[in-house]
Design a protein that fits this description.
DNA polymerase, domain 1; alpha/beta; globular; 6 strands; single chain; 222 residues; Rossmann fold
């Protein structure tokens, strides 16, 4: 039976650590990868903290502040021009190689497909259009509409309202364990996209319904 499937974006459809390549000519070979990793870690941390504190600033703000933190922490010198260019390039992240074919397979099976992201809606539309996968999706759902972030239960309830379906008829696909656990805790069906074989799932006793290394494999399991 066709279902509604919501795909996380960063880390699931596109790779935020690709920014290491964009950082290399700016901060050098030695700092590029550690800075990309720290940038991503602080970006997520800032969403968690802001969600808990109810001091909402959108994902674009969290991304800029996380870049500033990573640069300061690692002693990287960024000009205003460098900073602006890096933020702009965050909207041109490439999709993982399996994304287009995986989405095509699921769409061909009659499923409703949406992107479901912490990102600002306009930014996500632009990112997915640049990545060439927007035509394969039926909609974009942003947590910005409820002024909170995953894994706040309200954002998963909002997703179901947008899809006009009960949680039991919605699948969440994410590579981020915190997101998978958040969706599971809110009654959704969840699939963990384990993009790295060494990725570790949080040992909370809350397990995903499906695990797959890529979207093509997931499509066959669904």
């Amino acid at each position: 039976m066709p279902v509604a499937i919501a795909f996380d974006v960063y880390g699931t459809l596109v790779d935020p650590l690709e920014m290491g390549e964009r950082l290399r000519p700016v901060v050098g070979e030695e700092l590029a990868e550690p800075m990309a990793k720290l940038w991503r870690e602080k970006q997520l941390e800032y969403t968690f903290r802001r969600g808990l504190m109810r001091r909402y600033e959108d994902f674009n703000v969290c991304t800029r502040q996380a870049l500033d933190y990573a640069a300061q922490a690692l002693g990287a010198k960024l000009s205003d021009e460098d900073r602006g260019r890096l933020i702009e390039e965050y909207v041109s992240l490439s999709p993982y190689p399996d994304v287009a074919r995986g989405l095509e397979a699921m769409k061909g099976a009659g499923h409703t497909l949406v992107a479901f992201s912490n990102g600002v809606e306009a930014t996500i539309w632009a990112l997915l259009e640049q990545a060439g996968v927007l035509p394969l999706l039926d909609d974009v759902v942003s947590v910005d509409d409820v002024s909170s972030f995953k894994p706040d239960p309200e954002v998963y309830r909002y997703l179901c309202r947008k899809l006009d379906r009960p949680p039991s008829e919605v699948w969440l696909v994410s590579s981020n364990p915190f997101d998978v656990i958040g969706g599971e805790s809110s009654g959704l069906n969840v699939a963990w996209l384990r993009r790295r074989p060494d990725a570790t799932f949080d040992p909370w006793g809350i397990e995903p319904d499906l695990v797959a290394p890529d979207l093509l494999t997931l499509a066959s399991k669904l």
